[in-house]
Each structure stands twice: as structure tokens, then as C-alpha cells.
Write a structure and sequence with these properties.
DNA_clamp_sf, 42% strand, DNA_pol_proc_fac, two-stranded antiparallel sheet, alpha+beta, DNA polymerase processivity factor domain-containing protein
Length: 86
């Protein structure tokens, strides 16, 4: 996941801590009060739909690695791969 996408997700986390990643290259979020809607087109392709309950927690995990990659091979969880940031 590139820095641009991570920056978008950081912005979205201030709107809503939950997010549904949909297949394609667009990210969307809506505030819980449904009065703020945000959409961003990203350079990466999301291969399949998956949800994140706590976006800030995911961002914390992504910050631990250089060039993190989200692996969606498992049905019940996702795996973040990346180089150690030492």
C-alpha cells in the first residue's frame, strides 16, 4: 500500500473509524451522522471487498513496515506484509 493511499485512509479515519474496501480503485467513507461523505480514487486496485472495524488500528500496523502489502488470501483475516522499518 503506497503512502498516498495511507494518507487518504488517515483522512478517512477522522470521518469514520470503520471502512468497507470495495473491489476497484475507489475508497469511500461516510460519517456516522451521515452528514459527511468522502470519496477518493487511488492508484492501487483492491482485489476484493473486505471491511475494517478500526481503521486507526490498521493504520498503526501499516506504519510498522516500509511498503506494506495487504494479503487477502484468507477468508477470515488479512495479513500485512512488509519490510521492517529500522
Amino acid at each position: 500500500m503506497n503512502n498516498e493511499t495511507v494518507d487518504v485512509l488517515k483522512n478517512f479515519s477522522s470521518i469514520n473509524q470503520n471502512i468497507l474496501f470495495e473491489e476497484g480503485n475507489k475508497l469511500r467513507t461516510m460519517s456516522t451522522m451521515k452528514n459527511i461523505l468522502a470519496e477518493a480514487e487511488i492508484s492501487e486496485h483492491i482485489p476484493k471487498e473486505f471491511g475494517i472495524y478500526d481503521l486507526n488500528e490498521l493504520l498503526g500496523v501499516l506504519s510498522l513496515s516500509k511498503n506494506p502489502d495487504i494479503n487477502l488470501d484468507h477468508e477470515s483475516y488479512l495479513k500485512v506484509n512488509g519490510k521492517n522499518s529500522s
